[in-house]
Every structure is written in C-alpha cells, then in structure tokens.
Amino acid sequence: MSWHFTEDPEVFRHAAHAWLGAEPARNTTLLGMLDADGPRGWWDGPGGGGFLATPAGVLLLGVMPDAAARALGAAALPYEAEVTAVRGESGTVEAYARATGRPWRTTLRLRLYRLAELTPPHPAPPGAPRVAGPADVPLAAAWMREFARDVGEDADADYTANVEARVADGRLLLWETDGEPVAMASVSRPAAGHARVSPVYTPPAHRARGYGGAVTVAVTRAARAAGADRVLLFADVANPTSNALYQRLGYRPIGDHSAVGFE
Description:
single chain, 263 residues, alpha+beta, 8 helices, 12 strands, 33% helix
C-alpha cells in the first residue's frame, strides 16, 4: 500500500479510473481537471484514492480512506513546489493536515449538493437567459475575479482564458433584463455523467432580486441538455442565503468539503 506520483495525465487517468468512476459526485473536482497540467498521484491500497496539485501548491484530494490521507501527509512529495493548502472532503483534509505536522487552519467550508428535482423559482424574475458570446468575455472575466474575491480565491488572476474556454463551449450563461446582464452561471463539461455548476455570480447591485436562482436553473437545464445525468454544485457553508436558495431549487446536500491553509 503506497502512493505513486506522476505528471502525465494519461498515466493518472489509467491508474485512477476505477475509483474515480466509483464515486463521480464526490470526486467531481478531480474529474473536472483530469487534463490539467501538473503533479498528481494515486493510492494503491484498499479503497483507492488520488490527488491533483495546482501550480500554486494546492493539493486537491479525491475520495480516499483516512489511512491514505495520513500516508500522503507524511510523505515527501517529489515536487519542487511546497504544499500551501489542501482541499477535499472535510475528514480527509483534516487527516492529511494532521499528518503533515505543520501548523494549519481551516480557511473555507463548502457543502456539495446534487440535484434531485429541479424546481424553478415562482414567480420568475424579469428577464431571460442568454448564452454568452465573445463580446461578453471582458465582463464575465471581471465577474469571475469578483466571484474569486467573494470565495477567498485569487482575485488578481487573469480569468480571460478560462472564460473564453467556457464561451467557446457554450457553457456560460448570462441572465439579462432589458438587454443588461445582471447575473451569470457556468457549468463544467460532463464527466462520468456528472456536471458541476460553477461559478454562480450576481453583482451586489443586482442581488436579492432572484437573478441568481434564475440563471442557476437555466444553466442546470443546459447541463442536462449537454448530456449530464447528474448536476452538482458547491455552496459556502457560511452563506445561508445561497444554501437555502439551492435547496429551494431542488439541490440536496451530499457531503461537506474543506480548504486548509498551512502557515
């Protein structure tokens, strides 16, 4: 029982496909980044497991036994970048963090939701959804930065390429009223039959009017039309408004995730 490491996405995909596919909802973050560049590894012990590492040194942990998380936390990773943070299911993240012996603190708690039965808001707010086009990229990239700031991520990053990829695939929707975009939502490409809604963003001036819920319903329908059997999303546990909204729309909680930062 040990960890194996690679920077080859295809090697990782072949080694990890069985356990990733066994829990596609709980492994949604890793499934959505299988083709990304960077270090990764898999556990060959009972239950399996794996992780991906971002260029900033954040480890994204998939589903794994606590024994695997502890072994990873105690291991010397064969990468130059120091691990700055770790994300994944809460119990797994804490098992890893304790095993490192480094000072750490929880920086974010998220709840993972899966759609049960879609329930659109009634009455619907004014306006209608629209698939974003190339001319919308600057606005959407700016909103992505604002979303990143709201959830404690890198608000100084350039999200233009990220937005362009979503627009090219038709995966970014805007909610418009009188020709003005007032909210946006996007969705991942389906993987193992699952797609994940992210981000959902409404600028402060347009909040509390139902636009966020309406665009979430629109992008959920788009995900289903694109072939997703199941639709997922994350919500910040500290935000009761968004958690209540997603449950009204028909999403049901299936697990809690955490982010931990190291000093």
